[in-house]
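We emphasize that the prediction below concerns an isolated chain of 207 residues; any contacts that depend on oligomerization or on bound cofactors are therefore not represented. The input was used exactly as deposited, without trimming of termini.
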Amino acid sequence: MTIPEPFDEREARKQFVRRRQKLVFTIAVAALVAVTVVCALFILGALGKTPQKTAAQQPNYGVAVPCAPANSTVANHPNVAVRVLNGTDKSGLGTAVMEALSNRGFSMTGSGDYPSKVEVQRTEILFGKNNIAKAYTVAAQFNDAIMRMDDRSDQLVDVVIGSTFNNLNSEKSIVAAGKPITSIEGCVSDANTMKDLPKAPEHDAVN
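Result of the prediction step, given as a token string:
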């Protein structure tokens, strides 16, 4: 007959403590994994609110712009007066863009440096409320330009070259003169409602 080993209370207590610690550790790890997964889903946008679009994803890079006038068409290039301003530290870039636009038939009024102490990041098309269709015509030449209306009242369109500029759009990809202009999504229907416009760079008025 086998005599049972005496009950060891201390050993039993140790085993109980180990099992409890193991259970607590397992639960803690599972909870940590669950929290990590949920956080990852929020970061990736699978849960929670829809993430806001960055400026680069928004129409006109988030800058308010007027719609093209009703029934307006792409302007004939010789009828569009354009000045090119170099907003970068790359010497000669403004002149090069001016010559490229001249080769496409635009009426160039010259080039110069943009009066700013900091380098312009993205090319901007500056215009007034009286030459919106012409500004759209010029903007179509660029693939990453921001259209920005200022307080000028004449017909000159300024092109401020930014550091992201690489090249003009292919002429084959640009809508031809006389074709309807497609306004930028979310544009302002009435340009007269746009207030607090920036001051236009100094220039001679163009009729």
